[in-house]
Amino acid sequence: MYLEHFQLRSQPFCEHAAATALWQDQRMKEGLARLDFLIAMGELGMLTGPSGVGKSALIKQFLNGLTPQQCETVYCHLTHLPSSGLLKLVATQLGEPPRRGKDRLYEQILERAQRAEGTLLLIFDEAHLLASESLTDLRLLLSSALNVGPPLKILLAGQDALRGAMKRAQHADLLNRISVRYQLRPLSKLQTTQYVDFQISQAGGDVKIFGEEVKDLLHDFTGGLPRAINNLAIACLLQATADGAARVNEDVFRQATAEFQLQ
């Protein structure tokens, strides 16, 4: 196992790391600032970016910084559900047996928002999968929440297709309600190097395990997407362990990437 081979005390490049163990770069700081504004003064937020860029990590860091008194959150990722099913899911996650009919579901969610200690934030991850009817329902929910206090807020997080969906004529009103938007971009070459070093250091390893030239190759091969970097870096560590190599060099990297060529 490469943990023993490289004398690591924990798993680096972990997909489900604790919020306190997540790397925070300038992209994350900018995103957190916008999400903080959403809670303080906004109504509807939109977070977009390609798959594996770190949207979930940003949301995890954001939620970790909130207090129950400040904000109550509902996280929904089953966005492929029919619109009525999505509203029922929200009600269920709020601890309520869903009522029958959309009108009564709207009322139920708004009533629950009024009983919240702080702001009620509904987070819809994978929001690019939301049906057009579901987006309309969310607009109606926000429109109905004008007199709700504490306020009801919504965050839509999804791949870049979400921005295109929001530009359709039937969603113009919802688009105009967006007070916070952030496009999370892949890591630069320098950020990729810093990211790899951070992951290895967090695991108690020597940053020289990955050669500098390999860190550049990791960026070029993955396009700077953290999830792809994680997967390839682990493949490199496994390959180096199998080869008995003390470091991940270019030869180890090219052997490791061979198993990714079919993607």
Any overview of this molecule?
- This protein is of the alpha/beta class and 263 residues long.
- The protein has a 5-stranded parallel β-sheet, sandwiched between helices.
- Helix 6 links the parallel strand 3 and strand 4.
- Helix 2 crosses helix 3, helix 9 crosses helix 10 and helix 11 packs across helix 12.
- The longest helix has 18 residues.
- The model has no long low-confidence stretch (mean pLDDT 91).
Order of H and E elements: HHEHEHHEHEHHEHHHH
In total, the number of strands is 5
**What share of the residues lie within helices?**
40-55%
Q: State the major sheet.
A: 5 strands, parallel
Structural class: alpha/beta
Unreliable segments (pLDDT under 50, ≥5 consecutive)?
Answer: none
